[in-house]
Amino acid sequence: MNRYTWRTAGLEAVMIAAATVFAFPIYVLVSLSLRQPGDQSSPLVLSSPTLANYGDAWQQAGLGTALLTSAFITITSVALVVVLSALAAYPLARSTRTWSKAVFLLFMLGLLLPFQLALIPLYQTMRDLGLLGNPVALVLFYTGLQMPFSVFLYTGFLRALDPGYEEAALIDGCGPLRAFFSVVLPLMRPVTGTVVILNAIFVWNDFLTPLLYLSGTEQQTVPVALFGFVGQYVSQWPMVFAGLVIGIAPVLLVYLAMQKRVIQGFAGGLKG
Amino acid sequence: MATAVRPRRRAKSAPWWFIAPGLVFFAFVVVVPSVQGAGYAFTDWDGISPALEFVGLDNFRTLLDDESARSALVNTLLVAAGITVVQNGIGLLLALGVHARIKSRTVLRVFFFAPAVITPVVTAYLWKYLYAPEGAINALFGAVGLQSWRQDWLGDPDLALWSVVAVVIWQFAGYSMVIFLAGLQSIPQEVTEAASLDGAGPVTRFWHVTRPMLAPAMTINLMLSVIGGLKLFDQVWVMTQGGPGGATDTLSTVIYRQAFSFNDFAYSIALALVLTALVAVISSVQYRGLNRRERAL
Q: Within 10 A of B207 (CB to CB), how many other CB atoms are there?
């Protein structure tokens, strides 16, 4: 069963062919971004590549600011989600009381609700609070929105975790907060990795919410900045595509650097 | 120390108030506005004036007469069905492929999953270019002598919806693959080996051994793709904005347009409530059906 036979070789060839088809769009993306602006030849071949489009795109799209805004929103909201959902999951996993089950169910209901329903009333609330156009609105939004999924992951992990460690810490005179932060949270590192990866990719890539909450301001996230940029320069595909490559570079680099963790995160997070 | 003399009891390590901060965020962002939204769906709220009147089911009656919303509803169901079937079909084939003992399997996994982490706005623009009448796909067909396969992929009303669906499938087939792969890896090798010692060929092995044991992965994949398909927005909005002539409108794009282009907030929310009901009903029916099958095995 473990031998590399002709059949295996055939399968390998088929899979590589499939991968080539899958990669074709990415090839076009990169090769177009390296093309001379006036080049009218077929989009399939690349002659005399240039990096000039990247400089132009960087300046025209204001991607520097957008990357900073996106980074601020992603880092802050993921940090909040991790701490708050881990904290919330802790009593939910340990207590068997009715209220605890009810709160857990309420969180799980949040997994089903399409946020389109909450979108407009929340938009009005943010407007009344004067938070429209402020990245803080998005941090609030993502922290609340991502709570159910993260609570779900943490609770599942905690239920399988031996409570002996935290009990020992409490007997040694730790307060509950200290026991949580110095004993429980470090023990949950594997699932924290999953929570961070899944949330960070979701927040970084989200389009509709920043489109609404930050519209008409200087502070844009990367997807919204790209949306405006493409609308403005739609005929200059090489520069537009250079902008798109810059926009996805951070996520792709993180993915390639930690591909094993990312893939496991996506697969493992959903096993529960 | 006081703790030392106290009789040993199960230490109370997780006070209830740990839940409070997370619950406050969740209530502020999801629970309260959703309840508000469900209420507004039965009023004539215009989004600005606090004066609103209860209009009962009027917004839903409007929906029945609204040709474009009805076709968006149909499109939404088609999109969800198409994505669910094809994405999971391809995902399963890819998973079986990269689970086999081929040399390139690690690299191929990274490859197939990569589109799933890319910003949907970017993949949508990329494909908008690929789909253009003089774009890369038509150029490719031209170059290999398949002139008749050239199409106006996003401009043809009969084709546009499926062109959008194809992009979503391309992007997330790797996601399905990864979940199926986790399922495949959890199948103990002895089971498949025993089956093949008993003379079962690859097809029999797949059907009678692998397929039943993949049921949990199947449940997760089907749920995810149905819910994702029903809520689809980004790709449609970037590639076609619902056009040509509403041919690619989904509930999400109509909801957005009604609220933020036409300022018809109450109607928009009524549509969102329909979407919510759709997601809730379909996914719970699906969950029950799949769960029963899982238990039957």
A: 11
Q: Does B294 touch chain A (CB under 8 A)?
A: no
- For helices B265-296 and A98-112, the axis angle rounded to 10 degrees is 110
CB atoms within 10 A of CB A31: 17
How far is residue A241 CA from its own chain's centroid? 22
What letter would DSSP give residue B297? -
Q: How many residues does chain B have?
A: 297
Q: Quickly tell me which residue has 């997807």 as its tokens.
A: A223
Domain boundaries, chain A: 6-53, 62-269
* B138 to chain A, closest Cα gap in Å: 10
What residue has token string 């993306």? A29
pTM for this structure? 0.86
Question: What span, in angstroms and rounded, lies between the C-alpha atoms of A8 and B282?
Answer: 40
**Nearest C-alpha neighbor of B232 from the set B289, B285, B169:** B169
* Cβ-Cβ contacts under 8 Å for B261 (sequence gap 6 or more): none
Q: Check: CB of residue B282 under 8 Å from CB of residue B230.
A: yes
Q: How far apart are CA A191 and CA A197, in angstroms?
A: 10
Whole-angstrom distance, CA of residue B255 vs CA of residue B174: 29
Closest listed residue to residue B252, CA positions, set B230, B270, B267: B230
Contact B234 A208 (CB under 8 A): yes
Write the CATH number of the domain with boundaries A62-269: 1.10.3720.10
Tokens for B22? Answer: 């997370």
Q: Give the pLDDT of chain B (297 residues) as one tens digit per residue.
A: 444 444 444 546 678 889 999 999 999 999 999 998 888 888 887 777 677 778 878 888 888 888 888 898 999 999 999 999 999 999 999 999 998 888 888 899 989 999 999 999 999 999 998 998 888 888 888 888 888 888 888 888 889 999 999 999 999 999 899 989 988 888 888 888 888 888 888 888 888 888 888 888 888 888 889 888 988 888 999 899 887 888 899 988 988 888 888 878 888 888 888 888 888 888 888 878 777 776 665
Contact (CB<8Å) B101/A2: yes
* CB < 8 Å from A in window 63-82 of B: none
> Chain A partners of B116 at a C-beta cutoff of 8 Å?
266
Q: Please give the Cα distance from B251 to B276 (Å, whole number).
A: 10
Interface test with B, best of A1, A8, A12, A15 (most B CBs within 10 A): A15
Q: Domain B22-296 is classified in which CATH homologous superfamily?
A: MetI-like (1.10.3720.10)
Looking only at Cα atoms, what is the longest distance across chain A? 75
- Residue B209 identity (one-letter amino acid): V
Instruction: Tell me the β-bridge partners of B43.
Output: B54
**Distance, in angstroms, between B107 CA and closest chain A CA?**
10
Would residue B248 be called left, alpha or beta, if left means φ above 0 and alpha means ψ between -120 and 50 degrees?
Answer: alpha
The interface predicted TM-score (ipTM) is 0.87
Give the residue extent of every domain in chain B: 22-296
Contacts of B100 in chain A (CB under 8 A): 8, 11
Decide if B239 touches A, using CB distance below 8 A: no
